[in-house]
TrEMBL record:
The lineage of its organism: Bacteria, Pseudomonadati, Myxococcota, Polyangia, Polyangiales. The keyword Methyltransferase does not apply. Its EC number is 3.4.21.-. Gene3D superfamilies: Trypsin-like serine proteases. One of its GO terms (molecular function) is serine-type peptidase activity. This is Serine protease. The chain crosses the membrane at residues 74-95. Residues 1-30 are annotated as: Disordered. Belongs to the peptidase S1B family. Pfam families: Trypsin_2. It comes from Sorangium cellulosum (strain So ce56).
């Protein structure tokens, strides 16, 4: 312990130094090492806490921003989807409206350029069915095939020029599928007049599988020989005058009555029910190339000529229309096909679109 001298020279004990609480700076602002380390540690901890709070705040802000963006994207996506649906609905409505408007325009003739004046005139002499048959029976032929010594029949055909016959496009397809040599045998010739077919040409727009309706089911045959009789084709005026209630006469070789060895044609009579465009829609007379009739034809009648009351060919018989009903038999769904009285013919001027065989 330090001592100090008093005025008389005596030594007195030094006053004890003031002691500061641990961890607090002394009078000169100094702290011990332990306190300094603790202060630094506390500062670091506080700083880390502030940083964590800042990071948490940043994360919260970022999460909120992502949620806002997700909501906006969802709303935008729903808006885009709704817009696409609206566009699709508008397109369908517009398309159907346009179809209806086009159909109505076709029915009344709006928007269609006037057709050229038809050539020819309507004949004045109406013939009986017997007269029509007698005038044209030798222009009729059975279209068939020859394989070795066997002769089979496919369809009917008729001469429109000495070496050119008309028939259906599907007949050309079917006869080719039989193989052998394609031939034609003249009606009522006792099988003595038979010609090979040297070339066949179908309408380029014909689409197989449409049962004669929906595409031009017509074709031409070139034969190696000369037909002794040809039919007379109706002129433009006659074709445009075709309408419901007109007489229709079909001469051909129906089904089981076809004899390819010695053919004998069958005469059938009916009425025209309606005439339409190739798409089976109403149209102007110059485009009404599909003829519906009710003459009782059968399979072999495909390719038969259809005559009007003047004895002129107005069309080529192509198919019959079947009625289909959906029924349930023993719990199973099935389609029942019933024969319909309606038949389809192709107007004869469709042959103008067939390339020469």
């Amino acid at each position: 312990m330090l001592r100090s001298n008093d005025k008389r020279g005596r030594q007195t004990p030094a006053a004890p130094q003031e002691q500061w609480p641990p961890g607090r700076p002394d009078a000169d602002g100094r702290v011990d090492v332990e306190t300094a380390q603790r202060i630094v540690k506390d500062a670091v901890v506080q700083a880390m806490r502030r940083e964590e709070k800042a990071l948490a705040l940043v994360r919260a802000k970022a999460d909120e921003a992502r949620r806002r963006v997700s909501r906006h994207n969802l709303i935008l996506g729903l808006g885009v989807a709704a817009a696409l649906v609206a566009v699709a609905v508008a397109f369908v409505v517009t398309y159907r409206s346009r179809q209806a408007a086009d159909a109505l325009a076709r029915e009344v003739g709006l928007g269609i350029a006037p057709a050229a004046r038809p050539s020819g005139a309507i004949p004045e002499q109406v013939l009986s069915g017997r007269a029509i048959f007698e005038q044209n029976r030798l222009a009729l032929y059975v279209m068939g095939y020859k394989v070795d010594n066997r002769i089979g029949g496919c369809c009917s055909a008729f001469a429109i020029a000495p070496d050119l016959l008309a028939t259906n496009a599907h007949c050309v397809r079917d006869c080719r599928a039989r193989g052998g040599t394609s031939i034609v045998t003249q009606n009522d010739s006792m099988g003595k007049i038979r010609f090979p077919i040297v070339a066949m040409s179908a309408h380029p727009a014909y689409k197989p599988g449409q049962a004669g309706a929906g595409s031009p089911d017509v074709a031409l045959l070139r034969i190696a020989g000369k037909a002794t009789r040809t039919v007379k084709l109706a002129n433009d005026a006659e074709l445009r005058a075709i309408g419901p209630g007109d007489d229709a006469y079909v001469i051909g070789f129906p089904g089981r009555l076809m004899d390819p060895l010695s053919p004998s044609a069958t005469f059938l009579e009916g009425r025209i029910g309606r005439v339409t465009g190739i798409d089976e829609e109403a149209t102007t007379p110059d485009r009404a190339v599909l003829i519906q009739h009710d003459a009782v034809t059968r399979g072999g009648n495909s390719g038969s000529p259809i005559f009007n009351q003047y004895g002129h060919v107005i069309g080529i018989h192509a198919a019959h229309i079947d009625d289909e009903d959906n029924v349930t038999i023993d719990g199973r769904k099935a389609t029942v096909t019933q024969s319909s009285p309606f038949r389809i013919g192709m107007r004869i001027d469709l042959l103008q679109g067939v390339p020469a065989p």
